[in-house]
Amino acid sequence: MDAINARCRAVLVPRHAQALARGLVLLGCLMLGGCVTLPRNPVPADQIAWATVPGMPDVRGWAGRPNRDMQVDFERSMHDERPDDFPVASDGRIHYPHLALSGGGANGAFGAGFLNGWTATGTRPTFKIVTGVSTGALMAPYAFLGAEYDEALKRFYTTTSDADVFTAGNPVMALLRRDSLAHTAPLEALIARAIDAPLLARIAAEHRAGRRLYIGTADLDSRQFAVWNMGLIATRESPEALALFRRVMLASASIPIAFPPVLIEVDVHGQRYDEMHVDGFVAANIFLHAGIIDPQRIYTRLSRAPATYDTFMIHNGQLNAASDPAERSLRGIAFRTIEVAGRAGMIGDLFREYAYARRDRARFAWVTIDSTLALPEATSFDPERMKVLYEVGYDRARAGPEWLTRPPGMTPGDDP
């Protein structure tokens, strides 16, 4: 018996030592992750307001601040537009269609299906403005280019898997990586394949024909929402423009904590620095112009006939999801917090756009995913479930589409 006990101690003691060692390593990783930062070259705080993109100082603006470059560019669009794209309606006015696409990760399959179903009705218009945030930023170039790209949009949202978007790797290494839980090299490669020089040229051509494509990101340094004039970037038709176009799309889809932020090079008085951009939903889950321009004033002043606009907003998510217990883990708490904050932000975004539409006497229309449908986690790219959600969106649009005309909780009697 003593010999057996001795052998047991000989086995158990090393195992306990190994467990202790692993615990100490994990503790060390946590301490390193909390105390050490990755190197970068940020813009000095007192110079952030002067940062511009090298060679392209006029391609973005900041939410809530009228931007002269963006306004002049939109005024130019009125002179460049094709009359057949925006004809005078039977009421004697031009109704400029605006399309806004929200975030929602893999649930963007709903929006992709909705756009394709809308095409099938024969009533989908040519949009004067298309905007996108997060997954909406990934589908926005396709939506901007129209029905010709419906099949590409469908393919993107029914065949993409987790492996096409991110690599999670070892959780200990994620701690050591410090700025995210996963790598997005696969998504970066996917965007590079989708956004090539010929597609950029098509976007540039539509920009020159008087249409506008905007994508939103959140700049963590300035704590502001950036609106990027993607069509104007495309018109530069250079390797630098193509690279910037792709990086803005990647940044807008980079969910904080889950995915690493995207560093975008900027210039301040001849010195090069970097800005840290993440998923635009941090500041706005959906938007049309974010106060950078005032389309209605420009329409009133420059349109060839009395004009207004029609706002169409596709929410790739739910405002009334079913309750279920949250996972008690760092990942579970982080993702549930992001989800709840995003839903609350979406409600505020809808009321903001509704207020603009009421002020301008414009049409306000939006659609969301039915709350009775069980949705997967937004970061779970499962082609089979995405195909189902795509069909839900397709059928929803094909049947009408039927639009909601007021923000959640408002009834006709609530209108001022």
Task: Please give the structural blueprint.
Layout: H1 2-35, E1 60-62, H2 68-80, E2 94-101, H3 108-121, E3 129-133, H4 135-145, H5 150-159, H6 162-165, H7 171-177, H8 185-194, H9 197-208, E4 212-219, E5 224-229, H10 230-235, H11 239-252, E6 262-268, E7 271-279, H12 295-302, E8 307-314, H13 330-360, E9 363-367, H14 383-398
Parallel strand pairs: 2-3, 2-8, 3-4, 8-9
Antiparallel strand pairs: 1-5, 4-5, 4-7, 6-7
Task: Write a structural description.
There is one protein chain. With 416 residues, this protein is an alpha/beta fold. Helix content is 46%, strand content 14%. The protein has 14 helices and 9 strands. Helix 3 (108-121) links the parallel strand 2 (94-101) and strand 3 (129-133).
List keywords for this structure.
416 residues, alpha/beta, single chain, 14% strand, nine-stranded mixed beta sheet, globular
Q: State the total count of DSSP E strands.
A: 9
Helix segment tally:
14
Helix percentage: 40-55%
Arithmetic mean pLDDT: 87
In angstroms, what separates the terminal alpha carbons? 89 Å
Low-confidence stretches: 1-34
- SS-derived structural category: alpha/beta
Question: What is the N-to-C order of secondary-structure elements (H for helix, E for strand)?
Answer: HEHEHEHHHHHHEEHHEEHEHEH
Shape descriptor reads: globular
What Rg, in angstroms, do the CA atoms define? 24 Å
Percent of residues in β-strands: 5-15%
Strand count, sense and barrel status of the largest sheet are: 9 strands, mixed
